From TrEMBL:
UniProt cofactor(s): [2Fe-2S] cluster
Protein name (record): (2Fe-2S)-binding protein
Alphabetized UniProt keyword annotations: 2Fe-2S, Iron, Iron-sulfur, Metal-binding
Family: Belongs to the adrenodoxin/putidaredoxin family.
GO biological process: P450-containing electron transport chain
Length: 108
């Protein structure tokens, strides 16, 4: 089963089911709090993750992600967790500084 590792959440490992978004896997599978101001609808960029390794294992960019890339609000090494699925392999990422939640403990 594909796996997401969140480096700055103490190496949190999350299994990602087929067709499941990274956000769904984080919230439902792990019960991890993750910023998502628009409710996971691809209308903002608060749920983004910085991908450190394994971008090649992610599904192609969605229309929402392409729109934010064109506007410069989503960098080449970032994905929206509410849009991104993981068909295979492993991805390592981190929560960006701008979207860290104040009640969560982040590692370096």
């Amino acid at each position: 089963m594909p796996k997401l590792t969140v480096q700055n959440l103490s190496g949190l490992e999350v299994k990602v089911a087929e067709g499941q978004t990274l956000l769904e896997a984080l919230l439902q599978g792990q019960g991890t709090d993750w910023m998502h101001a628009c409710g996971g609808k691809g209308r903002c960029t608060t749920c983004r993750i910085v991908v450190l390794q394994g971008m090649e294992h992610t599904a192609p960019l969605t229309a929402a992600e392409l729109r934010y890339r064109e506007k410069g609000r989503l960098q080449d090494n970032e994905r929206l967790t509410c849009q991104c699925t993981l068909p295979s392999g492993e991805v390592t990422g981190k929560v960006p500084e701008q979207t860290k939640l104040p009640h969560m403990s982040y590692s370096s």
